[in-house]
Amino acid sequence: AGLGEFRIRDLNDEINKLLREKGHWEYRIKELGGPDYARIGPKMLDHEGKEVPGNRGYKYFGAAKDLPGVRELFEKEPLPPPRKTRAELMKDIDAEYYGYRDEDDGILEPLEQEHEKKVIAEAVEKWKMEREARLARGEEEEEENIYAVNDDESDEEGGKEREEEGQQKFIAHVPVPTQQEIEEALVRRKKMELLQKYASETLLAQSEEAKTLLGL
């Protein structure tokens, strides 16, 4: 490390140049039918027994690993914090999470009241200034009539009245049965259903014959 940054870089470049030349000879030996030293040869280890680090085939030896800009290449990024499961997240959700206990400490409510008073005072002051400005211009102040009826509302009420009047003036052009006639028809229908359910064919025939004789 005492050689200086530039000398260390020159030495490291020279070592990498020799390694490239060594790689070319190994490839040539393989072409001539010899052993593949690139595959079966020993790995390059540093003084700690670890494999020499490199980047895109360029190796860094000794003090070259601590040069500025090189150290950052081999610093491992911190692992991201483990993600919590849904069950773990639900453990932290309670009434306080939704804001139901914000007023329990007695701090928020007085602050809200104070802010509300301030907003109301500002609104009143703004209204007074606008009113004085209108009076200064000679504009007459017209008070809003809260009992005034809008055209839309009057139309709706008028429509309802017209509907009620139309219902009162309804005239039926067909005979409408009375309540008593409806009840008698229901009773006759009920009797016929009971007869059809419980009477035999003979009784039905006799009943029909009796009706014919009586002219019913």
TrEMBL record:
Gene Ontology BP annotations: generation of catalytic spliceosome for second transesterification step
Keyword Transmembrane helix belongs to the record: no
Record localization: Nucleus
Comp. bias (Basic and acidic residues): 157-167
UniProt feature, compositional bias: Acidic residues: 139-156
Gene Ontology CC: one annotated term: nucleus
Disordered: annotated span: 133-170
SUPFAM superfamilies with a match to the protein in the record: ISY1 domain-like
Any matching Pfam family: Isy1
Keywords: Nucleus
Top-level taxon of the source organism: Eukaryota
Main localization of the protein described in the UniProt heading: nucleus
Keyword Nucleus: yes
Family label: Belongs to the ISY1 family.
Protein name in the entry: ISY1 factor
Protein species of origin: Mionectes macconnelli (McConnell's flycatcher)
